[in-house]
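Quality-control log, excerpt.
Job 1 of 2 completed; input and output follow.
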Amino acid sequence: MKYSGIGGQAVIEGVMMKNQDEYAIAVRKPDHNIEVKKQPCKSLRNKYKAADLPIIRGVISFVESLTMGMSTLNYSASFYEEEEEKMEKSKEQKEKDEKKDNIIMAIVMVFAFLFAIGVFFLVPFFVSEALRKTIPSLQLRGLIEGVIRVFLFVLYVKLISFMEDIKRVFMYHGAEHKCISCIETGHELTLENVRKSSMVHKRCGTSFMLIVMFISILLFMFIVVDNIWLRMVFRILLIPVIAGLSYEFIRFAGKHDNPVINILSKPGLMLQSLTTKEPTDDMIEVAMASVNAVFDWSEFLAHYDEPDEEEKKKEKTEENEDTANTVETEETEQTEETAAAKEETVSEKTPVEEKSETDIEIVSIDDEEDDEILNALDRYFEMPEEKSE
């Protein structure tokens, strides 16, 4: 599987797909035709370098995804207003309603965020604190708090999956996953290929939420503060950090395929069985229309077997290391050859021609010259004695 960079979201009777700096929403209208809306999207990560730093980019991406998700949901829902209401509305009235919807959407987002914090963070916290006398260990209570949080999240997803409208959204969610899996496994985006593709994906928002739960368990187990209110404040303040860390894991997992990553991603993939359902062919067609609007999958498949940027950098580094090792080996061999040549040259010299490193020539002396020198020395030392006598 090769990373494509596209991501998406299921909406009401449709799918939104995002690729780099643009996104498209494809919706199956009540008349059964597919409406596709394509728009540019600018991220703070592209505008400010600091916004693209690890952890920080995760928080920004999370907030931007929530905002875009609410906007696309609102757009898809607009197709299912009563036809009479649409006909009666004037252009000015539609603009006013759009502004009103934006305000309502902002309020709903705030309340949804507060509700999520209350249910999935504060409720487990207070339940674990109620066990303070029975379980004095902060670490053990932190673990219990995390288990309760995961249980509540899974229960929430399971309950809403019984709603008919949500069930159809989950089917479109499955269509979105199938389209991305089809492309990233190297197959053409056709109805037949998408049908056979997987409904689970490592970069899914469901996996992201579960990773948030697990990371919160690890962090909150080791926040040792005696004051109960201070511990609660820390839990709220650390939410952006947890979101940032979770984003980094999901991002890394989406680009790598190895046994460790696959094992760590398994719980999230298992939970996706609740949030993705097998789509119908007409739902797959909607998802395909959204992909085609923002992503040139034929160009992607044409270079599918080529390594991506990270693999190219890794290969280049390995090539540089191999080149450096080769050069070092060659230099060592040349040095050894030179030393051996010098040794051979020295060994071939005669005793008369040999010189020391200070260029002192060693000359052989015969026996007759040796006797003359000794006699001269004897005469020299005997002369003073004769004078003294």
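Job 2 of 2 completed; input and output follow.
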Amino acid sequence: MTHLKLVSDITLIDPAAERSAMTILLTATGAVVGEVSKVYQTLSRTLEQDLEGRSKAVAGRAFNALPGWQRERIATVALEAAGTARSYHAARERAVTALAALG
């Protein structure tokens, strides 16, 4: 079983990668608890506010307050989405490389 906990510490993470990960988490959260849930709305505001420290900490607390089974389900959905995104980006990169070789 995978348990997902949103970490709000100050570690050095690539901002583009963090935004991508938060977008996947937001989408998965919406799919599991609904887009009208307070947790989804809090994560959405955090993403809109460029993942600032205070906003990120609030989102972390809101997410971590979800029952474990919901965090688990969100983790499953998010990991599936991340795998799909990785496959898409890898295929796109191969296509760009192939096109560059032709030109």
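Post-run check on job 2. The two ends are 47 Å apart (CA to CA).
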